[in-house]
Structure formats: C-alpha cells, structure tokens
Write a structure and sequence with these properties.
Layout (H helix, E strand, L loop, with lengths): L2 E4 L5 H8 L6 H17 L1 H12 L10 H9 L3 H19 L6 E4 L4 E9 L2 E5 L8 H14 L3 E6 L9 H10 L3 E4 L2 H10 L9 E3 L4 H10 L4 E2 L7 E6 L5 H12 L6 E6 L3 H14 L5 H11 L1 E4 L3 H11 L3 E5 L3 H4 L8 E4 L5 H6 L25 E9 L1 H17 L3 H25 L1
Length: 440
C-alpha cells in the first residue's frame, strides 16, 4: 500500500510529490473564469443559480439570520461549545504576541520617518462545507482578524441541500466574532466576495481554504483583492529515528491521508527496520476507519517511507520537500529541529501530534502547502493588517540631501523627479534675486 524508498537509489517520488499540486488545469480554469464573469455581471442572480446547480438548493436570502445562529448554538453540545471557547482562548493568546505597532524614527530635529500599522477594513473568510466543514478553520481565520482590528469580518460557507449550515460552524463563528455569515460557496462565493453582489459586500482580502475551484478562483481575483495563499492538498512529513514508536507514526500518517486522495503522508527515517513496522501498523490501524478508501488511495499515490543514510540526510530531505506539517519523532527533537529550514509548522516529540496544532494549541493551522514554506508563512495577524510609510523632511533636511536625490533621479532618466526637488530651491533663488533688483 505504501511504498518504501531508498533515497540514494530513487528520487523520482520526490519529483512526483513536488509536482502534484500544480493548479494549471485548463478545464478548471475555464469553468472558474466563466463563474467569475457571470457573478461579476449578474451578481445575486448568478450566485443563486450556481447555488442551485452546485449545492442543490434554491435560496432566496443568502444571509444567515440571528435566529439560525442561536438555534445552531442550542443544538451544539455544551462540551463542544466549551472546547471551541478554550481553543479560541489559546489561539487569541498566541496571536496577540504577533501584534505590531506604528512607530516613528526621529533623525535629528528635522527628519521624521515612520510606519503606520492599520487593520484591513473588511475581510472575507471562506469556510468549506460538506464533508470538509471544520469549525476549527472558522477560529483560525476569524480570531487573528479580530485581534488585528478588522472592522468587518464577512464569512461565507456553502449550504447543505436543506439550505442549512452545519451547527458547529455557526457556533464557532459566533464564538470567534464573525460579523455576517452568508450561505455561498465554491468559486461563485469567492466571486461574490471579490466583486460584491446585492447581498454580499465586496471585501478587501479573502482568506480560508477550499477545493481546487476555490483555490483557482482566489488565484484569479488576486490583485483585485488580497488573498492569504493558494492552498493545495494537505501534507505531513515525519522525521523518525530508531527510538520512534511505529504505532504513533502510523496514526499520524493516517491523520493526514484521510483529508483527501491527494494528501501526502511521508515518513523519513535513517532506521530501516522501522519501515516494515510502520507499514504493518498502517494495515492494522486502517481496519474499520470510516475514510479507509480515501486513506488507502492517498497512501498509494502520495504516501511513502523514505530511507536515508543518517539523521542529517533525513533533515535535508525534509527541507527539500518543505512540508506543511513536520513532526520530529526522534530521541532529541530539540536538537534536530534546529536544522529544519522549510516547514509550515513543526511538532516536537511523540506527544505533540499534528492534531494538537489543528485544533487547540494556538498557532494557526492555515499553513503553506506545496513546498511554499520555502518562502511563505502560516496565516497570522500580519495577514489582516497593512502598513503605510510616513516621511517628513524639513526645508533644511531636503537642502542637505537635494544634490544626491537629483543625481540618482537623473541617472535613472527621470528628470521630472529631479525637477521636483530643484524647483523648491531654484524658485527661492529667483525670488531673492528679484527682491534685490526691486530694492535697487
């Protein structure tokens, strides 16, 4: 079911893995482009038609009412509500440390430089529906937005065939502080957020995960609005040595493989006997799981146990793959993780499995996938703020710098830029000369 690879002899799997998330699919792109164009033109009318076509329900009103939210809270167990509230507290505590403040730098008495930090005015968060309806995703998107000071948080999520939203999703939205919730999903929901309709207001930035149609829609509207990232299928990579427990490894690989058939679950180890033990454990633990078929296809297509020559090479492979989730199940994880350069989130030790981060610990679970942790970061408060530079020069300060500024401008062939500086002093000279002539 899961392949075992000696990395010194076979690197083809790595190439296949790194190519799996390419989102340039012509058929998807054409469909998304049509949806975006129709919603932009026909607004609620197009959104209503796509909701009927894709979600199987006819909606007159997309807005989730206060009564619907209260009913959802009433039918959600008290224990789950308490769990979501505790998770929100952990997420808040972690993300408050990310807050940045405006600042000013005084360069002498006549130059002031600074940076203004302001929240984005209106943000749209996309929450998947159907089998992938996760209240934890509501918390992970709405809580940092609220901490950043976003004025209005608009949440969209697909309705079921009865025109309803999963109660725990609405409960989480209430706990996290979403301002308005609309029943809209897919590329058409992204279009509604990006362009605005009669019902759904246009936002300044869109965050949140979704299927390939949602991902491509976000990619298409990027620039018109901001987006957080283009999320691909989920992935986990586990670095393990001879001290690791194969039962824990198998369970953690399965936890990611169950997301979908394109999810990647990979073990990298320098202890070859561990490979057979983990493969055996996978077979045992798969028995009776509800999503067994999905897990098996995921492991068959993108699962692997990679054998390396040493722990250092294991870390090198992890850095090359740059996984979304990286577990370090070694005897000394605090030594090993220091060599990790590329990962969305790192989980240290056998009692820090990936679901701890997904649901409860506090760091954001919206993470860079598809090797993008080489250059990008988890969702954070920074995603919901904007920064503006502030510059003040007095007359004397500009006079001290004018020759340098004009030289650089003229080197670039931008004589208008140079003149913008020169005119401030040439006009003064002319004025003084005219005054002298008048006195004569």
């Amino acid at each position: 079911m899961v392949r075992i690879i000696d990395i010194s002899k076979d690197r083809e799997f790595l190439a296949k893995l790194l190519d799996r998330n390419k989102l340039e699919i012509d058929e998807v792109n054409k469909s998304v482009d049509d949806i975006l164009a129709n919603v932009r033109r026909d607004k609620d009318s197009a959104l209503r038609e796509y909701t009927r076509e894709f979600d199987g329900v006819v909606l007159e009103d997309f807005l989730v009412t206060r009564q619907e939210i209260e009913e959802a809270i009433d039918c959600t167990s008290k224990a789950l509500l308490e769990d979501l509230a505790r998770a929100r507290e952990n997420i808040e505590k972690y993300h408050r440390k990310q807050m940045k403040n405006s600042y000013s730098l005084y360069e002498g008495e006549d130059i002031i430089l600074g940076q203004l930090v302001r929240p984005i005015e209106r943000v749209g968060i996309y929450i998947p529906g159907g089998s992938a309806a996760y209240p934890s995703t509501v918390l992970m998107n709405a809580v940092p937005a609220r901490i950043a000071g976003v004025n209005e948080i608009i949440m969209i999520t697909p309705p079921d065939r009865n025109g309803k939203v999963k109660p725990s999703i609405l409960a989480a939205a209430s706990i996290a502080g979403a301002d308005k919730i609309f029943k809209a999903g897919g590329a058409q929901g992204i279009a509604a957020l990006a362009f605005g309709t009669e019902s759904i207001p246009k936002v300044d930035k869109i965050t949140g995960p979704g299927n390939i149609y949602v991902a491509m829609a976000k990619k298409r509207v990027m620039g018109l609005v901001g987006i957080d990232m283009i999320a691909g299928p989920s992935e986990i990579l586990i670095i393990a040595d001879q001290w690791a427990n194969p039962k824990y490894i198998a369970a953690d690989l399965i936890s990611q493989a169950e997301h979908d058939e394109m999810a990647a679950a990979i073990l990298v180890t320098d202890w070859e006997p561990l490979a057979a033990k983990v493969a055996e454990e996978l077979e045992i633990q798969l028995q009776g799981l509800e999503r067994r078929e999905i897990i098996e296809k995921s492991l068959e297509s993108y699962g692997a146990i990679i054998i390396t020559s040493c722990l250092g090479e294991s870390v090198d492979v992890a850095n090359e793959i740059a996984p979304e989730h990286l577990e370090v199940l070694t005897r000394n994880p605090f030594d090993v993780y220091r060599g990790v350069k590329n990962a969305g989130a790192i989980f240290l030790g056998e009692y820090s499995p990936e679901p701890v981060g997904d649901y409860f610990a506090g760091p954001n679970h919206t993470l860079p996938t598809s090797s993008t942790s080489r250059f990008s970061s988890p969702l954070c408060v920074d995603d919901f703020i904007k920064k503006t530079s502030l510059i003040y020069y007095s007359k004397n300060a500009l006079e001290r710098s004018k020759d340098s500024i004009m030289r650089i401008a003229e080197e670039e062939g931008l004589t208008g830029h140079a003149n913008s500086i020169r005119v401030r002093f040439d006009s003064e000279v002319s004025f003084k000369e005219a005054a002298v002539k008048c006195r004569r």
